[in-house]
């Protein structure tokens, strides 16, 4: 008797259905740069995964490629028009074009994966609505912290549980620069040049260093973790372009490191605070150990307590791995539930807070404009001041702070603008 004929008919039926479910998925890949090539390479290593890249679209016909020329199309719309493709993977570097392609595909009711954080953060309400209206699915795990599975963790695993905070290091390039400065005592420009040489920072580093990139990621997580939809501009993003060795030493003397921390913090009265700024981090924080190009996320859940995820936030294989996971999820008919978007008591985003900051500047006008309400520490000779300022003032003057060469880091303490109650600690560890 052959092994097959000895199988119980019920088991055979289940096995047959699993085989059917594993029929090779036909992928249309739009973009064949760092992430697109990373995904392609991973799929070559996983023949048992049951997916094949059927078509690839790129932009520049003159560019040398690792595959024969006939493997490529130079019109992404041809892939949108191909009914034989089961999944479209959009990994191009142009957010406006990415939105056009993804929204067109969703209007066709298609299964789509994207890694484009700027596009998702900018258009999330519309992307959610298109999925409801036309029945397609969009997954974007790769858009937030590369290989770290944080979007699905928040959406599915913590979909019902209240979260006290979600905070982390969401940008590997700026973290690499800060790590080099901390370890070598080097100035910002030297550390940035090294990061660029090592491939950890872009030639134009502004999106990463001025914290626009982690802000997009935070806006996406706000929807999944708290059901709050935000425009990116509503959120304070302060970066590290003006950090100096003096600031790193100031932190080191206190046994701390400076990290760019992106955070969502639940406040009393159903309010949510959302910030991306440099922050002093001490060794009791899990984020203290997240160095170099790594990312880390701390989730403080009401009942589960603290959880810490750490991993590579960028690179072809780590980001390709997140795209692969989304493709597998699509094959299992999984989609984001956005469970907290429909909660009975929605949270209100608030900026009506005072934040304790360290500010180093020689611009007296900025000091006046920020309107310190309390000064905790001041050192004229080193040009820094520590104290509470209204968050709204930081939002209003963030461009001026950048242009004036000022460096701001928060201590982790905030209080309501009226400061009628005690200061709260907005860190994941206190
Ligand atoms: N790199 C990472 O580690 C990382 C991590 C997380 C998320 N992401 C996100 O993933 C996406 C892709 O990033 P990447 O680093 O892979 O970019 P990349 O290396 O610059 O590659 C971009 C690719 O998109 C193609 N492309 C651009 N415009 C196109 C168009 N209109 N039609 C068809 N193809 C087009 C380019 O074509 P040519 O080859 O012809 O130039 C190139 O192949 C971005 O949204 C990025 O934010 C990247």
From TrEMBL:
Database matches in Pfam families: Homoserine_dh (PF00742), NAD_binding_3 (PF03447)
Pathway where it operates: Amino-acid biosynthesis; L-methionine biosynthesis via de novo pathway; L-homoserine from L-aspartate: step 3/3; Amino-acid biosynthesis; L-threonine biosynthesis; L-threonine from L-aspartate: step 3/5
Protease recorded as keyword: no
Gene Ontology terms, MF aspect: homoserine dehydrogenase activity; NADP binding
UniProt keyword annotations, A-Z: Amino-acid biosynthesis, Methionine biosynthesis, Oxidoreductase, Threonine biosynthesis
InterPro entries cross-referenced by the UniProt entry: Asp/hSer_DH_NAD-bd, HDH_cat, NAD(P)-bd_dom_sf
Location of the Aspartate/homoserine dehydrogenase NAD-binding domain: 31-141
Enzyme Commission number(s) from the entry: 1.1.1.3
Family indicated by similarity: Belongs to the homoserine dehydrogenase family.
PANTHER family documented for this protein: HOMOSERINE DEHYDROGENASE
UniProt-recorded name of the protein: Homoserine dehydrogenase
């Amino acid at each position: 008797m052959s092994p097959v004929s000895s199988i119980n008919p019920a088991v055979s039926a289940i096995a047959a259905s699993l085989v059917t479910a594993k029929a090779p998925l036909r992928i249309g890949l739009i973009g064949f740069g760092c992430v697109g090539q990373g995904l392609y390479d991973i799929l070559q290593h996983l023949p048992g995964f049951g997916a094949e890249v059927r078509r690839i679209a790129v932009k520049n016909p003159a560019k040398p490629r690792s595959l024969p020329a006939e493997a490529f199309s130079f019109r992404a719309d041809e892939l949108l028009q191909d009914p034989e493709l089961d999944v479209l993977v959009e990994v191009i570097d142009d957010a406006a074009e990415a939105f056009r392609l993804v929204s067109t595909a969703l209007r066709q009711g298609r299964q789509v994966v994207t890694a484009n954080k700027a596009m998702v953060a900018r258009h999330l309400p519309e992307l959610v609505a298109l999925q409801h209206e036309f029945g397609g699915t969009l997954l974007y795990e790769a858009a937030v912290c590369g290989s770290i599975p944080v979007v699905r963790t928040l959406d599915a695993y913590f979909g019902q549980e209240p979260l006290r905070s979600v905070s982390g290091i969401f940008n590997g390039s700026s973290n690499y620069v800060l790590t080099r400065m901390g370890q070598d005592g080097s100035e910002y420009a030297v550390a940035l040049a090294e990061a660029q040489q090592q491939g950890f920072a872009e030639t134009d580093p502004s999106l990463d260093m001025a914290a626009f990139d982690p802000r997009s990621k935070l806006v996406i997580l706000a929807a999944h973790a708290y059901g709050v939809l935000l425009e990116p501009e509503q959120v304070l993003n302060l970066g590290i372009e003006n950090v100096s060795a003096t600031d790193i030493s100031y932190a080191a003397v206190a046994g701390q490191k400076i990290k760019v921390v992106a955070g969502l913090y639940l406040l009393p009265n159903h309010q949510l605070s959302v910030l991306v700024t440099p922050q002093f981090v001490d060794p009791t924080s899990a984020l203290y150990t997240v160095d170099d190009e790594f990312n880390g996320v701390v989730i403080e859940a009401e009942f589960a307590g603290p959880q810490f995820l750490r991993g590579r936030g960028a690179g072809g294989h780590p980001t390709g791995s997140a795209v692969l996971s989304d493709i597998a999820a699509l094959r299992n008919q999984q989609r984001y539930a956005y469970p907290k978007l429909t909660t009975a008591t929605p949270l209100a985003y608030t900026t009506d807070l005072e934040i304790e900051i360290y500010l180093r500047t020689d611009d007296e006008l900025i000091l006046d404009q920020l309107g310190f309400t309390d000064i905790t520490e001041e050192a004229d000779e080193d040009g820094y001041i520590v104290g509470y300022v209204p968050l709204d003032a930081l939002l209003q003057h963030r461009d001026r702070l950048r242009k004036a060469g000022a460096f701001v880091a928060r201590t982790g303490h905030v209080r309501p603008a009226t400061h009628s109650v005690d200061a709260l600690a907005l860190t994941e560890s206190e």
